[in-house]
Design a protein that fits this description.
single chain; 466 residues; mainly alpha; 19 helices; 12 strands; RNA-binding
RNA sequence: GGUCCCUUCGUCUAUCGGUUAGGACAGCUGGUUUUCAUCCUGCAAAGGGGGGUUCGAUUCCCCCAGGGACCGCCA
């Protein structure tokens, strides 16, 4: 048995979206599960639309989520000569022919097909015509001579046997009239030269597979295995496209989703393994298989992404979580100063308890991360004369407090509650606002302890609340 | 319109002929609680429709309906 080799072959004509990432993930997992290799091929033959920045974004995105390809990336545009020479071989062996139809002629055919509500399929005009009759003013394209008789069965690893009549596959163009190869030719030649054993790609490629199979056959190349995975749909039930919002990895990273959480979410979108929901990277490699891939398309569900992220926030090692937070804040928020590290790490256990995203943790930890307290207008309203008295008294008690923990703080707060004939909220809220600027956030004792005596004293002396 | 694919709770899914159709997320209860949460109880929630096959179908077959993908000298 040959070593499994898979590939992910995006075109760098736009940002990689989450559907593409899942395809890459499945390919990667499948190869790793089989102790094989995973390759990245950049299909940059559309020179107008291909951009280097997209290529960089693609590689960065894959790396972010934990996927690294084996070997150098394969740049399709550097192999164009190979593709052209295969086209010529096909021409020589009678498996392809020159088509001298003008653009106008083709457009006309398409128009007529539309009018008659028939599917357009090239009429194979030049399939049997002699080149002697060729017009001199038209540069020909090269078309593959598709089978007309019989049918082809695709033994799809996900969808099972799929059979279509050969005459529904048109004589597709393999070389444009400017001499450049088209997708189906290039992809096939590359897959063959890269020795791919398994082509795992979106369901939208299925018709291409039938075309490509014919090229393999004509070239007497060994056919790889194919697996067409169902597409990811938007909440509206349509194919996810580059135009959809929030579909690149950056969009998720920006709101504080962690790569492992998204990886786990994507893994379970369209694939399952018994009732298991949480998969470490190692587990996902161990258990991944093609049998577990469902046949129906699945919808993207943000609340699930969020809850997966929440799970990872609560369950991963706190040092690791802290590192994620530092990176996140540096890129998207305020950089965390190194002298805050200890305070934040100590507080992570309660900061993370009310967070679904790294952004939530940042918000909860803002009172530590930022040196200045930013008061919300509504929150400031809570600081009336009575509240100011409570705050002042609390400050005085704190100054003389030796045991700076919950046991030491509780009697102080309780004393104030009694004195001012109120409840916990009546005392806690003004102090919380004075310390953090907000009435929401971690528990009062957590805040006080995490800030430390010196900082408390400083903040409670602020003019705005005295 | 043609070809192909799909169809279990709102969502992701389990079930490989016999189950009170299971789990997870979301939702709703109740409890703990120091705001907001977390955490813990519980509840509600599904086999598109119609035919077969079978002692028995969510499961196998057929038809219909609905949804989707493709139909580029893009990839």
């Amino acid at each position: 048995m040959f070593k499994v080799a898979t590939r992910f072959a995006p075109s760098p004509t736009g940002a990689l979206h989450i559907g593409g990432v899942r395809t890459a993930l499945f390919n990667w997992l499948y190869s790793k599960n089989n102790k094989g290799t995973f390759h990245l091929r950049i299909e940059d033959t559309d020179k107008q639309r291909s951009k280097d920045e997209h290529k960089i974004q693609i590689i960065k995105s894959l790396k972010w989520i934990g996927i690294e390809h084996d070997g150098e990336e394969y740049i399709q545009s550097t192999k164009i000569n190979d593709h052209i020479s295969i086209a010529n071989e096909l021409l020589k062996s009678g498996n392809a022919y020159k088509c001298y139809c003008s653009n106008e002629e083709i457009e006309d055919q398409k128009k007529r097909a539309r009018q008659k509500k028939l599917p357009y399929i090239y009429n194979r005009k030049w399939r049997d015509l002699s080149e002697k009759d060729a017009p001199t003013d038209v540069k020909p394209v090269i078309r593959f001579k598709s089978k007309i008789e019989g049918s082809t069965i695709l033994k799809d690893l996900v969808q099972g046997d799929v059979e279509i009549d050969n005459n529904t596959i048109e004589d597709f163009i393999i070389l444009r009239n400017d001499g450049t190869p088209t997708y189906n030719l290039s992809a096939t030649v590359d897959d063959h030269q890269m020795n791919m054993t398994h082509i795992i790609r979106g369901d939208d490629h299925k018709i291409n597979t039938f075309k490509q199979m014919q090229i393999y056959l004509a070239m007497k190349w060994e056919l790889p295995q194919f697996a067409h995975i169902p597409l990811i749909h938007t909440i509206k039930g349509k194919k996810l496209s580059k135009r959809d919002n929030a579909s690149t990895l950056d969009d998720y990273s920006k709101i504080g989703i962690m790569p492992d959480a998204l990886r786990n979410y994507l893994l379970r979108l369209g694939w399952s393994y018994e009732d298991k929901e949480i998969f470490t990277l190692e587990e996902s490699i161990k258990h991944f298989n093609l049998e577990g891939i469902g046949k129906s398309p699945s919808k993207l569900d943000m609340s699930r992404i969020l809850s997966m992220n929440e799970y990872y926030i609560k369950n991963i090692d706190e040092n690791e979580l802290y590192n994620h937070l530092v990176q996140y804040c540096e890129i998207y928020k305020d950089k965390i100063k190194t002298e805050k590290e200890e305070k934040i790490k100590k507080s992570l256990s309660f900061l993370k308890n009310k967070a679904k995203t790294l952004e939530d943790i940042f918000n909860n930890a803002k009172y530590i991360i930022l040196d200045e307290v930013n008061f919300g207008d509504d929150d400031l309203k809570l600081i009336d004369e009575n509240a100011k008295k409570i705050i002042a008294e609390f400050k005085n008690e704190i100054i003389s407090l030796n045991t700076f923990n919950k046991e030491g703080l509780e009697p102080i707060v309780n004393g104030l509650i009694k004195k001012y004939d109120t409840n916990f909220k009546g005392v806690g809220q003004p102090i919380r606002v004075a310390l953090t600027g907000s009435k929401f956030g971690p528990g009062l004792y957590d805040i006080v302890i995490s800030l430390g005596k010196k900082e408390i004293e400083k903040r409670l002396s602020s003019k705005i609340i005295t």
